[in-house]
Amino acid sequence: MKWHLILFITILSLPVQAQNLCGSYDRLAAELKRMYNEQVTHSGYIENAAHEISIVEIWETEDSDTFSIVLIRPNGIACLIITGKELRWNKDAFNDET
What phi and psi, each to the nearest 5 degrees, are found at residue 78? Predict the structure, then answer.
């Protein structure tokens, strides 16, 4: 599952620029549901060198028209990492069989 690794490395390499995009998970989740009608469709975890676990969630609308990626840190703070439009999953692009 190389695509999972690529996604997580990409997320970790993004700079945390906007401190105001972090806060209570409940508040962030409520806003994504209310403003964009998004829901969690995928989730996974990342473990750093100190063995701290962070959770990554991908939120999408039912038709995948918009999406958001949320990182929930070990201290419980949730950060909106990125938002976008027209998310498409191409599982064949990262097929381990070559």
Answer: -105, 140
Give the span between the Cα atoms of 29 and 9, in whole angstroms: 23
pLDDT on residue 86: 84
DSSP 96: S
Taking all residues of the chain, what is their mean pLDDT, rounded to a whole number?
Answer: 79
Burial of 27 (0-12, 13-18, 19+ CB in 10 A): exposed
Q: Positive or negative CA dihedral for 72, 73, 76, 78?
A: negative
Q: How many CB atoms sit inside 10 A of residue 62's CB? A: 9
Q: What pTM value is reported for the model? A: 0.71
